Amino acid sequence: MTLDKQTWQSMISDHLKDAEHPLIVILGPTASGKTGFSIEVAKWLQNADIINADSRQLYRGMDIGTAKITLEQMQGIPHHLLDVLDPREQSTAGGYKKAAEAIIDEIIEQEKVPVLVGGSMLYIAAITDGLSFDPSKRDELRSPESKCKYDLLIIGLGKKRDEVVEKINNRTSLLFDAGWVDEVKTLLTQGYTTSDPGFVACGYREIAQYLQDGGDLAVLQEDIAAKTRQYARRQMTWWRGDTRINWL
Questions:
Q1: Can you give the residue range of the structural domain that contains 180?
Q2: Which end of the chain has the lower number of beta carbons within 10 A, N or C?
Q3: Shared domain check, 100 and 72
Q4: Whole-number pLDDT of residue 138
Q5: Residue 27: which H helix or E strand, with range?
Q6: Both 191 and 228 in a single domain?
Q7: Does the structure show a pLDDT above 90 at 164?
Q8: Alpha carbon separation from 112 to 23, 109, 155, 211 (Å, rounded)
Q9: pLDDT at 1
Q10: Residue 248: DSSP 8-state
Q11: Cβ pair 118, 27 in contact under 8 A
């Protein structure tokens, strides 16, 4: 399904008329434009809060490399679950689900609309598929899929493969221009190491290795872009076949 502005606005309006516990989910591969679209949706709704569903953006001090939304870009829209973990802390889908559902429930109680936005597949599925996790083991399912507790409307931002490649390449270049290497250098100066959980975010360990060993910056940039493209393919493979997603 291809959705223009009038179509997605009508779809959201129709959904909210019948939903007792509404949850709008905006997902898509890396660099597909989720952040900008979520702001457009929230501004149009006028009574929405946005909940981050990108596991990398949970970490403090990791802003440039994760393309974290800035305060200016938020345009006054309340955002949740950004900068809630230290890079030394472990992030899990089970822990995320507990925190996210508490926030979603509170937003609904306030008669506002929760908008879940991100690209971390398992974290989103934890909410949309009602997954249950073994608290003693990292991201291990304790039971098969159960029912989601919310009335879902899922909108996916998808692009043709060549467009995704171009956007990822361009964004990677922009992140380097914005000071990504200096951001990693600052983290290392503060005592964080590549063994810390936060450094699992694509590019951080690679840049840290570059700062330690040296090398060709252009080669480093292409390596990170390639790994990001691979991740985007995994994202689309995960969501392929989910008939609940209305692709924009």
A1: 161-232
A2: N
A3: yes
A4: 73
A5: strand 22-27
A6: yes
A7: no
A8: 10, 7, 19, 46
A9: 47
A10: -
A11: yes
